[in-house]
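Subject: design request, 339 residues
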């Protein structure tokens, strides 16, 4: 048995390359993603052995100009033939979750209570002016997770990237910071537009253990007078987190921990928002789809992606290890150098 496991591992290793190769899947967008070509300075970043990213020098005003184009690109992407199965999957998964939303809230609430995580939102004032809180801090675990989903970490990452990019004249860092700020406009407009159509009641307003009332195309005066009674679908928190993770991973593909750490935080924040009855489970599939799509759209602008043909660029790339079978009881390893 041990020998079989070892041989399996060796076989898998033999199929793996020591080289670091990357591939970025790009969307076909109607609006030109590189309108700056030939008009702005560029910096080239070689990522791994095969990827070359060319970044254009960004301007702060790009945030506002591009956010409008993002909406047009988003509408184009989700109505394309190849996107329809994904749109259908988001709608179908949402529909499948709605009947169990009430029970899911109870399951999460009871489960987190069992491990000592209270559901109440508790924040303390870090900075206040005239009795109005300008900056708060979480006072329990659930509030800390909810705070992460509010977008403050995305803002701080953007500020950090602006600072690093300005000090080091790093176009990639500056462009990523611009995109993180751009997402708040694009995601805010998209999510609010859908919220004002679906008019779904938040769990905190439901008292009968059901899955909330839907007020399709609600009266806008009613909406503004009782926002939590209408703004559950989709989750802006989840959409923004997904968009942030997508933008960061698209611009920094060599940092492989961005996605696993980011997705884990998304899961934790999703549970926290169910625990404090801000969102239903079925508020998430559409939000995740919106965030991913918008993240791909936003990150496609301001850079050019190209690939280098380097099949055997160095000694490590030229070397492979293969298991060699001698007989049923013996095997050896072969070290092969490709000329």
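Subject: RE: design request

Done. Sequence follows.
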């Amino acid at each position: 048995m041990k020998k079989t496991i070892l041989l399996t591992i060796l076989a898998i290793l033999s199929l793996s390359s020591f080289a670091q190769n990357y591939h970025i899947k790009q969307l076909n967008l109607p609006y030109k993603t590189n309108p700056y070509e030939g008009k702005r300075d560029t910096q080239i970043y070689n990522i791994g052995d095969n990827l070359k990213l060319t970044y254009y020098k960004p301007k702060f005003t790009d945030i506002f100009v591009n956010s409008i184009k993002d909406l047009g690109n988003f509408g184009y992407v989700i109505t394309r033939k190849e996107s329809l199965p994904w749109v259908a999957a988001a709608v179908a998964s949402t529909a499948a979750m709605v009947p169990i939303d009430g029970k899911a809230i109870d399951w999460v609430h009871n489960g987190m209570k069992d491990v000592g995580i209270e559901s109440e939102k508790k924040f303390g004032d870090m900075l206040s002016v005239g009795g109005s809180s300008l900056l708060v801090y979480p006072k329990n675990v659930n509030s800390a997770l909810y705070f992460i989903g509010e977008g403050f970490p995305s803002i701080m990452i953007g500020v950090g990237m602006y600072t690093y990019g300005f000090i080091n004249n790093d176009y990639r860092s500056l462009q990523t910071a611009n995109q993180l700020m751009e997402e708040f406009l694009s995601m805010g407009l998209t999510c609010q537009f859908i919220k004002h159509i679906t008019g779904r009641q938040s769990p905190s307003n439901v008292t009968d253990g059901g899955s909330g009332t839907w007020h399709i195309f609600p009266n806008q005066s009613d909406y503004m007078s009782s926002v939590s009674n209408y703004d559950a679908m989709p989750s802006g928190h989840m959409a923004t987190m997904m968009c942030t993770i997508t933008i960061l991973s698209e611009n920094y593909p060599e940092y492989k921990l961005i996605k696993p750490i980011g997705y884990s935080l998304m899961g934790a924040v999703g549970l926290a928002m169910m625990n404090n009855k801000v969102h239903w489970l079925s508020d998430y599939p559409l939000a995740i789809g919106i965030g991913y799509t918008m993240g791909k759209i936003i990150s496609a602008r301001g850079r050019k992606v190209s690939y280098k043909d380097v099949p055997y660029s160095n000694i490590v790339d030229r070397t492979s290890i293969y298991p060699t079978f001698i007989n049923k009881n013996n095997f050896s390893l072969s070290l092969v150098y490709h000329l």
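Residues 5-18 have pLDDT under 50 and may be disordered.
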